Amino acid sequence: MRCGEDSIYLKFTKLTNQFLIKMVIDYLKENKYFRYDVLKNIPNISPYELNTILTALGWEQSEFDVNGWQQDTWYTYLHKNYYFKLIMFYSGYYRKIELYRSDINDK
Questions:
Q1: What's the first-to-final CA gap in the chain, in angstroms?
Q2: Long-range contacts of 91-96 (CB under 8 A, 24+ apart)
Q3: In whole angstroms, what is the distance from residue 31 CA to residue 51 CA?
Q4: How far apart (Å, rounded) are the C-alpha atoms in residues 50 and 61?
């Protein structure tokens, strides 16, 4: 049965999602031009949940940008142990979430 915030299913799902995102970030260290389609691999995750995972992994949100009509948003994160920025792109219109990296000096 899957009910309540403390259910084993929800705890397992959160840990699994956090592990997958950590693996993606490690892969992005070596692969600058890789864009990870989050919803293809973690179908029921929301931008809020992804933000929670990134925060738990030590990433701090530093910037936020939005494009009106397509409901596109870009969240930029920094981490003291990484030499690149992590970008979470979310499109509400197309229902897409991507993670990719950007160099610190890139705008």
A1: 47
A2: 93/69, 94/70, 95/39, 96/37, 96/39
A3: 22
A4: 12
> Please, are residues 58 and 51 in contact by the beta-carbon 8 Å criterion?
no
How many other CB atoms sit within 10 Å of the CB of residue 46?
A: 12
Long-range CB pairs of 100-103 (<8 Å, 24+ gap) are 100/28, 100/34, 100/35, 100/36, 101/28, 101/29, 101/32, 101/34, 102/76, 103/32
Note the pTM of the prediction, 2 decimals: 0.84
Identify each DSSP E strand in 56-107 by its residue range. 60-67, 72-78, 84-91, 96-103
What the block records as the tokens of 65 is 């940008």
pLDDT in tens, 42-96: 878 899 999 999 999 999 999 989 887 778 999 999 999 988 999 999 998 888 9
Q: Where are the domains of the chain?
A: 8-103
